[in-house]
Write a structure and sequence with these properties.
The complex is a heterodimer of chains A (864) and B (359). Chain A has 864 residues and is mainly beta. Chain A is built from five helices and 53 strands. Chain A has a 22-stranded antiparallel beta barrel. Chain A has a five-stranded mixed β-sheet with strand order 20-23-24-21-22. A four-stranded antiparallel β-sheet of chain A has the order 6-5-10-19, covered by helices on one side. In chain A, a hairpin with a 4-residue loop joins strand 43 (744-753) and strand 44. In chain B, a hairpin with a 5-residue loop joins strand 20 and strand 21. Chain B folds into two domains: 25-191, Sandwich (Immunoglobulin-like), CATH 2.60.40.1930; 195-359, Immunoglobulin-like (Sandwich), CATH 2.60.40. The longest helix of chain B has 11 residues, at 6-16. Chain B has helices spanning 6-16, 103-108, 133-140, 148-158, and strands at 32-39, 42-43, 48-56, 64-71, 87-90, 93-96, 114-117, 121-125, 160-170, 176-186, 201-204, 238-239, 244-249, 258-267, 270-278, 282-287, 291-292, 296-298, 305-308, 316-324, 330-339. The chains are: A mainly beta (864), B mainly beta (359).
Chain lengths: 864, 359
């Protein structure tokens, strides 16, 4: 048997972005030499590229040959790899399966053959005299220490080879070197080869740590993006779940780099006008889908004027989208949920990230402390619209600012504390405006929120995990309009909310996890209003804005104390039941207790290899908005909105990394609130007014198709198609189409990672046009000096919406930092896509309304 | 407090500047009804009311055919009791799908309406019973069992609006049809509203002494022929093409009338309350040529607008100014502007309100 010793273990180039401080890569613990048939001569280097699934036990699972070298190399490499032993990958301290690439290399044997092998082995096993060279290997640009990299040092005189392998810090030590210059080589297959001349030093003078000039930076090639580990994902927590990670969140074209805007490309999500980033999911309204950051709901998600999200994309670790049947540990939304989980930069050293584009600048800095047990991260982002807008619209000013500050600290290995502060302030103003009446007007709109959050995560004994968090948030929204002719109009909203979460997960059995907890929320929102009243009864609206100002105070306290319980039970292998129950206990308005039971059941049944059937049934309750229940304009008796949803589908994984999902759904909403100003008799017989009625219902039903290539490898993306119908019932009328109904909704988003750190992506959207009722006639109102439109009875649809977005990214790696540049062009061929119609004053002339034009953005980013 | 509704409005507003221009409502380029006046604008049951239309057409020789109807139809889109109907967001506009209707559509539906005539001015006899409890409830979509105190307030403060609908057809090379309507308020209020009177405007060339805010005249005698600047119809004001002029209203009462209105209150147990409101005049400008700085402006502060005449203005250009008091009162004036010769070295000489040009 001939044993080939020289195998280079190509391990795991871990992503800067992917590697959170809660993920530990696997490491090879026991390497096994491949055994070749007798007489096999290795004349030149032969490489067999394998993919190995490393199980939670550290043993190899499925092994496949990705790049074959033919016989006998493939069989020999496979046989050896099956006997490897690893330390398993850890996520949050829990072993998880991962799948990694592995290149087994057969190098040409030396003339001295076995003797050299014996000598090499002796060097490996015993500390040998001679000189020592200590070095370090980092990934170029990210400065990530590369573990498990084989280093070969060759004596040019004798051709003797000396080997070493880097440890977790990327450090290697080569012993037994001759007292002269030798050649050091690093060849991994996934990086540019490195070779340099080095010289060892006597052992008694050898440094414990590498000298500053003994660092080698390896430049990744081919799959130049960060992640070459295709992790086995945590199993979905519901029947319908899409999880996005990494560059899927930040580099999908047409989303401004906003993770939450990527949701609009997913199935079940109607296209929102102007890409505003709020979604009508499965026939529901915008407010029926919740956005959560680290478990707590977000009230303000985007900056003004359709600006970017308030959370810096660099701090977004993952995003889970549930179009329905979301886990019961979350609640208070009647249809879907978007769950954003934040992350921190790696804790191995300080990191900085600076990005500048046409409209804003972002800076992020993080630094570990206390021997990497803790980390502080700060991020700030500031727009500079106010420098550019005067060139186009001198009367308009717009600015925004957002910030995040985070501290994480491992009090003990199983007890982690975190604190974060995040907030945003936006201002939009128009100055020197001339109103309809010729008078000077100024208007100002300010939006702000500030949140503090603290939490503990405890990995308790017996497979119990406890997570608590407390959030406090202050929100404000100020509007002011001053005019030389009229009284000032002001609307000042302010409020604060406190959220307390306790989540307990117990892995009772290998096939059973039981969870429970409490989700409490208290909010006190109020407004001081000096706003125009409705027109006087019996009087026509005047020809120009002439407000009668009334002052009022609106207060809307709200409490919700929701216990919940759920389980994840693999009844038989392949059949998972995920039942859950949440009891929504809310008070608001008249402060009577509203009880909303939220049962949920998801079923996932792997009926065959790679084929899973899914089903879901869900009831979810949601409170009305504060202005809908807070007096004097709201109805304090407004009930909870109730969403009842069901789905049935299948998922097919034809091969690892690919997914085809088909799902039919039906979603029905009850007690929806709509504006309906009316008068009636009160209980005492007096005239009473109301502004709302909650007799509206909504429904959406259809079929979703989702084809996805998961992130990892040379390309990733998805094709999403939804065929659906969305309707509303507004008594006394019958069911009619909902304004966001889009029969066909197709999104194709794909990115390709090219060589040399280039990547390109494209996104194509094709949706049915929104429907509208045309204005067929108009009457002149002689009191108002304006025309009253008369709508036709038949609705029509706008032309099909179609748009292509492109994005190109390029990264330059320097030893200790990276420079990235990108070009993102929305609506590349400047399709018209009007979002509305525009009529003349008498409705006789119709023109195309506004739509988003071509919108290029360029940016540069420095990662340190 | 999601910004879901605000964001698209602001976003759309941002891009409006990039859109195709629409016709100017101040420009009369075809058949238009510019105003309808009811005299008195607020009447009592059984009282006669004269209703007159201001109809404009670039070609004064085009034959016009009018038809007037009167009816009582429920209030719509007034806000307080506007109802909901199938309110939604359609193609970018909020709308109420249900047609608020007119006397013509009510007639087509087979209900009783009153034919008033086919001349420019017609007479309406306000029927009795309009202010009955049932009629008031119907008018505002209120419950039939409306409490009497509420009926009394509505009767005296808000009244009931009779609807007068007008259909105008023009002949000639490009026939056209325009429909308009006006509210005639019927109430028991005293005193009742009247139409603005003594409509008169001051014309000056900006930068000239006559254009001084401090010294420009604020009062004058309106022409009985209804011209805007007090001129005789056969002695039109002459203005220079390619020049901008300032138009200021005169005879604005120093103390505008204060009257009670019924507003929705912020007290849920007292759904509406009476509030005093000061009258405001709204001026709407119309012409076939030129452009106005402000097509509509109010009488508060220092009301005025500018009128820029084109360089290629024809020999005669019409000007209409409609004055409304925001509660149904209407008046108007009409002038024909003549094309003037270019001014001499001093543009103020010969300008309106200035030293006449010497021969």
């Amino acid at each position: 048997m001939f044993a080939a010793r020289s195998a280079f273990v190509c391990v795991f180039a871990l992503a800067l972005a992917a590697r959170a401080d809660d993920f530990v890569a696997p490491a090879l613990q026991r390497f096994v030499d491949a055994v070749l048939p007798p007489g096999t001569v290795i004349e030149q280097e032969v490489a067999v590229v394998l993919s190995i699934t490393i199980l939670e036990t550290g043993l190899p699972g499925e092994i496949t040959v990705d790049v074959s070298a033919g016989d006998p190399w493939d069989l020999a490499a496979l046989a050896a790899a099956r006997r490897f032993e690893f330390s398993p990958a850890l996520e949050n301290g829990v072993p998880v399966p991962v799948r990694v690439p592995f290149t087994y290399r057969f190098r040409p044997t030396l003339r001295r053959g076995q003797f050299i092998t014996e000598r090499r082995e002796r060097r490996v096993e015993e500390a040998t005299p001679g000189y020592r060279y200590v070095g370090r290997i980092l990934e170029k640009g990210t400065r990530t220490p590369l573990e498990g990299i084989a280093v070969v040092v060759i004596d040019p005189n004798t051709r003797v080879e000396y080997q070493a392998t880097t440890d977790g810090a990327g450090i290697f030590r080569v012993d037994g070197l001759p007292p002269r210059r030798v050649k050091l080589e690093v060849v991994t297959g996934e990086h540019e080869p490195v070779a340099r001349e080095v010289e060892g030093v006597p052992l008694d003078r050898a440094p414990a740590a590498p000298e500053s000039d003994a660092t080698l930076y390896l430049d990744p090639v081919g799959l130049s993006d960060y992640l070459t580990v295709v992790r086995e994902k945590a199993p979905p927590k519901a029947a319908s779940q899409v999880t996005l990670v990494e560059d899927e969140l930040r580099k999908t074209p047409g989303t401004f780099g906003d993770p939450t805007r990527v949701v609009q490309t997913l199935p079940g999500v109607a296209r929102s006008p102007f890409g505003i980033g709020f979604y009508a999911v499965r026939g529901s309204s915008f407010e029926n889908t919740g956005f959560f950051i680290d478990g707590h709901p977000v009230l303000f998600l985007y900056h003004l004027l359709g600006g970017p999200g308030v959370l810096a994309p660099e701090l977004v670790g993952s995003l889970d989208f549930y179009p329905g049947g979301y886990p019961v540990r979350y609640g208070r939304f009647s249809t879907g949920a978007v769950l954003v989980t934040t992350k921190d930069p790696p804790t191995d050293r300080w990191h900085a990230d600076v990005e500048i584009d046409l409209l804003k600048a972002t800076a992020l800095f993080s630094i570990p402390f206390d021997d990497e047990r803790g980390q502080v991260t700060v991020s700030i982002r500031r727009s500079y619209y106010e420098l550019l807008l005067p060139l186009v619209q001198p009367d308009i000013s717009l600015s925004y600012l957002d910030y995040q500050a985070r501290v994480n600290y491992a009090i003990k290995p199983n007890l982690r504390w975190r604190f974060s502060a995040l907030g945003a302030e936006d201002a939009f103003g128009q100055g020197g405006e001339v109103g309809d009446n010729g008078e000077e007007q100024d208007s100002l709109f300010i939006l702000g929120f500030h949140r503090l959050l603290t939490g503990l995560t405890w990995d308790a004994p017996d497979n119990v995990k406890v997570e608590t968090s407390l959030a406090w948030e202050y929100d404000r929204n100020n509007t002011e309009r001053t005019s030389e002719d009229d009284d000032s109009i002001t609307a000042d909203f302010a409020g604060w909310f406190v959220g307390l979460r306790v989540d307990v997960d117990w892995r009772a059995l290998p096939n059973l996890t039981v969870s429970g907890g409490f989700d409490g929320q208290f909010a006190d929102l109020g407004a001081n209003l000096r706003v125009p009243s409705l027109p006087p009864i019996g009087d026509p609206r005047p020809p120009a804005f002439d407000p009668i100002i009334i002052t009022s105070r609106v207060e809307g306290p709200f409490t919700s104390t929701d216990p919940w319980v759920s389980a994840d039970w693999e009844v038989i292998p392949g059949l998972r039941l995920i039942p859950g129950f949440r009891l929504a206990l809310m008070t608001y308005g008249d402060e009577s207790l509203r009880v909303g039971p939220d049962p949920r059941l998801s079923v996932r049944w792997a009926v065959a290899q790679g084929l899973t059937l899914t089903a879901m049934g869900s009831i979810a309750h949601e409170s009305p908005q504060p202005f809908q229940y807070a007096e004097p304009y709201g109805d304090p008796e407004a009930p909870l909105v109730q969403g009842v949803q069901g789905s049935f589908g299948m998922e097919w994984v034809p091969e690892p990394g690919w997914l085809l999902k088909l799902e039919g759904f039906y979603n029905h909403l009850y007690n929806m609130i709509r504006p309906n100003a009316s008068a009636g008799a009160s209980d005492s017989g007096d005239l009473a007014q109301s502004f709302w009625s909650y007799d509206m219902q909504g429904r959406g039903y259809g079929l979703e198709v989702f084809l996805r290539k998961e992130y990892g490898g040379r390309h990733y993306g998805w094709v999403s198609y939804t065929l659906s119908r969305s309707e509303r019932l507004r008594p006394p009328a019958d069911w009619t189409l909902y304004e966001q109904d889009q029969t066909h909704n197709l999104n194709v988003a794909w990115s390709v990672i090219l060589g040399r750190d280039w990547s390109v992506g494209a996104r194509f959207s094709l949706t049915s046009g929104n429907f509208y009722y045309p204005i067929e006639d108009a009457r002149y109102d002689a009191d108002r000096d304006s025309y009253e439109p008369v709508y036709g009875e038949q609705s029509f649809r706008f032309d099909v919406f179609h748009r292509l977005d492109l994005r190109v990214d390029k990264r330059w790696r320097f030893d200790t930092w990276m420079l990235e540049a990108y070009l993102d062009i929305q609506n590349v061929y400047n399709a018209d896509n009007p979002e509305a119609q525009r009529y003349s004053f008498d409705y006789r002339v119709l023109t195309a309304g506004p739509g988003l034009p071509i919108l290029p953005t360029i940016g540069v980013r420095g990662v340190f | 407090m999601r910004t879901a509704l605000l964001a698209p409005c602001l976003f759309a507003a941002f891009f409006v500047g990039c859109l195709e221009e629409l016709p100017d409502p101040a420009k009369v380029e075809g058949l238009r009804v510019l105003a309808i006046r009811a005299d008195p604008p607020e009447a009592a049951e059984g009282q006669p009311v004269t209703v007159e239309a201001l109809v404009a057409h670039p070609d004064p020789t085009v034959p016009l055919t009018l038809r007037w109807l009167a009816c009582l139809k429920p209030e719509r889109s007034s806000g307080f009791f506007s109802g909901g109907g199938n309110v939604g967001f359609s193609g970018g506009r909020g709308f109420g799908l249900d047609d608020p209707g007119s006397c013509f559509s009510i007639e087509q539906a087979g209900y009783d309406v009153t034919y008033l005539g086919d001349t420019m001015a017609v007479r309406l006899e306000v029927p009795t019973g309009v202010l009955s409890g049932e009629s008031i409830a119907n008018a505002y979509g209120l419950p039939a069992s409306l409490p009497e105190p509420a009926i009394a307030i509505l009767r005296s403060v808000s009244g009931v609006n009779l609807s007068v609908s007008l259909e105008v057809r023009s002949g000639g090379a490009k026939p056209d049809l325009v429909e308009a309507f006006k509210r005639v308020n019927v109430s028991t209020a005293t005193p009742k509203n009247t139409n603005p009177a003594d409509v008169l405007f001051h014309l000056a060339r900006p930068g000239c002494p006559a254009d001084d805010d401090e010294t420009a005249p604020t009062e004058g005698t309106a022409s009985p022929r209804g011209t805007c600047f007090g001129e005789a119809p056969d002695a039109p004001v002459a203005l220079v093409p390619g020049t901008t002029y300032r138009v200021r209203p005169m005879n604005i009462p120093e103390d505008m009338q204060v009257y009670p209105v019924l507003l929705g209150s912020t007290n849920p147990s007292s759904p509406f309350g009476i509030q005093e409101k000061e009258e405001v005049y709204f001026y709407s400008m119309f012409s076939s040529h030129g452009s106005f700085g402000d097509r509509v402006f109010k009488s508060r502060a220092t009301p005025s607008t500018t009128w820029e005449l084109p360089s290629d203005m024809p020999e005669r250009v019409p000007l209409w100014i409609v004055v409304r008091d925001g509660r149904g009162g209407t008046a108007w004036c009409h002038s024909t502007i003549a094309r003037a010769l270019p001014p001499g070295p001093d543009p103020c000489v010969g300008a309106p309100g200035e030293t006449p040009a010497t021969e």
